[in-house]
Amino acid sequence: MWLGRAEETLRARALSLGVLLVLGVFLLPTGLQAQTRSAADVRAEAVERQMTDAERLQLLHGVMPIPQFFPDGAGIPSDIPVTAGFVRGIARLGVPNLVETDASLGVANPMQIRVGDTATALPSGQALAASFNPALLYEAGVVIGSEASAKGFNVLLGGGVNLARDPRNGRNFEYLGEDPWLAGTLAGAAIAGTQSQHVMSTVKHFAVNDQETQRDTLDVHIDEAALRESDLLAFEIAIEKGAPGAVMCAYNLVNGHPACNHPALLTEVLKKDWRYPGFVMSDWGAVDDVYAINAGLDQESGEQLDATVWFDAPLRQAIGQGTVSHGRISDAVRRILRSMYTLELDQHHEAVPVDYQAHAGLTRRAATEGIVLLKNNGVLPLDSALKSVLIVGGHADLGVLSGGGSSQVTPMGAAPTIIPVEVTGGMKYMGRQLYMPSSPLRALQTAMPETHFAYVSGYDVATAVAHAERVDLVIVFATKWQVESRDTGSLSLPEGQDELIHALSQANPRTLVVLETGNPVSMPWLANVQAVVEAWYPGQEGGLAIADILTGVFNPSGRLPITFPLDVGQLPRPSIPGFGLPYKSAVSIDYSEGAFVGYRWYAREDRKPLFPFGYGLSYTQFAMDQLRVQQSTDAHRRPTLSAEVTVSNRGKRTGDVTAQVYVASALTRGTRRLVGYVRLTLTASETRVATLEIDPRLLAQWSPRTHQWHMPAGHYDFVLANSATEPGPSVSLTLPAMHLSP
Ligand code: BGC
Q1: 209 CA distance to ligand 1 centroid (A)?
Q2: Which residues have C-beta atoms less than 6 Å from ligand 1?
Q3: Fewer CB near the last or first residue (10 Å), C or N of the chain?
Q4: Tens digit of pLDDT for each residue in 523-550?
Q5: pTM of whole model > 0.85?
Q6: Which residue's CA is the closest to the ligand 1 atom numbered 2?
Q7: Domain at 356-570, CATH from 3.40.50.1700, 3.40.50.300, 3.30.1300.10, 3.30.559.10
Q8: What letter would DSSP give residue 95?
Q9: 7-115+128-342: which CATH architecture?
Q10: What is the DSSP letter of 698?
């Protein structure tokens, strides 16, 4: 266990407080403020008191209501949709059922299990993160929450905020990149948006579920300080900003203990240090023991996937034997009720009619804001006078690719194209590549009526080359599918696409590449192509969004939320521990890079990646003019930090720019760390000034000894830049020491 025993912690706290008073350093509280008892708390307590023991236990576990598992219905009410989760409420006390659906990219319907039920399919999490736009994530959360509510769900299993420690992780496409501040702020905004619709959201998967390989058995080793400063910080910020009703604990082990049976994580950090008032639900099939309840788990989800339904008969028995206290049961029940009442799940909310057209509009804008222009030798935006363009590959005649697994949305519009593929391991049944019905070919043809477009699949390289030689310009759509439960072993594009791009670029010097990927990919052909556009998985309006960018209707403004390495040799672990071993092999992983995740790792190791975090080009020219960093004091006379950035558009088009502020200090070993960002829209020649608050935890390190954030006195260099590596105006400050309680 990486946290010390309780009395050691208490002693350390008392000691540090004394020392601080003597030294006169600043002591700041962070995180959630001490919770005052809300009306929801009072109600939760009153209702819980009226429950029988059987009713209490009923709220502590739920099924995955899928008919294959329950051919006889198992008493699941017939109006409950086939979905991820169902927890039966207590009608006599007006306690509602919890009807749970995935997830962060729209109301999921994986494998089209609810026949004919479509929903707005947003771009992938990475695409949303590339917008660097919390307001957009909030709107996305509203879209999903309102549709979930209209479909009869009141819990969204959203809020995926695991950090992209490995660019081969099969679920990175669901998450929000490699930086804790970016991921945490964006996840918090999405959660708040969803919950504004009276739909409870989770934040997940707590914690360090950062690879899919052997996810059920993987033991993650990481020291406490590094964990607090990276993955846990992303959760902490997301919880502060979004106040999710539930936290979903993860499949993996953390330092030897299953994440769903982990007192240090669930009780010490989450419930005590962060004063989290909601409840912890397990991931599906992640509970290994009844005593997980004593570790801090409140609710067992997808119970039929566990070895037994731990929170039913075994829990009753444990209570009878006195090994689980009545107090703990009441606490778990009250936490669940509190989240229900805070979000008014038990009230009748007038059904708001869903404006699917407006949601489609938002989806198109979201995809457009997230598309990243990686290279442009001047071929983009496309010249409307082009006579002939050849589109190759990626099924661009049909649609755009999406990621697979529990988050898979069945999109609105025409029927999607589904290509069966083999997936081994725990989610064999998820082997279906789904192309959203928004064809880039058609969108481009509509946007450029004077140009003749032709399409070839690219499976026959010779045919594609023969066509390429005869046209003005070639656009290759290159795809790489990712699916929950499976990482990819390499960064290469699959199915000979690298060779295809190479051959086409030789055949026609005006060749450009549009990527639809759920992760960074290597680009051995980069020098030979004229432009590269990363469109991620752009969602149900993806074809239109890609056309908006390629034709210049919208100035490219996405920024990479994840570093694109040159090759796997640059990663902390060139091969993924456990990759290729039989399913559920016991494997451990040492996150020796600690809090130096992503761009921080490449900088520390002096490795120059292909494209850095924060990077992205545009069709106009922005200048980062000026940075000022101010120290001031807040209403309680505590020191605070804020940055004022001045940015101008020196080009001829309106466009969005993301100003990024990084810090370098002794703690970062002189390398940069993101402390703030802001996305601004600037018309041609416009200059804007914006102010960012800097969270002091981003300048600090966690001390397990004093159980506090500690910012040493010393020099702090701030820089305003376009990416994690580009130069920009900087400011050097000498700051006093600060200590921050959790
Ligand atoms: C995933 C969760 C998901 C749950 C329910 C699990 O396999 O890890 O993210 O919410 O299934 O579908």
Answers
A1: 12
A2: 84, 102-103, 157, 204, 283-284, 406
A3: N
A4: 999 999 999 999 999 999 999 999 999 9
A5: yes
A6: 283
A7: 3.40.50.1700
A8: B
A9: Alpha-Beta Barrel (3.20)
A10: G
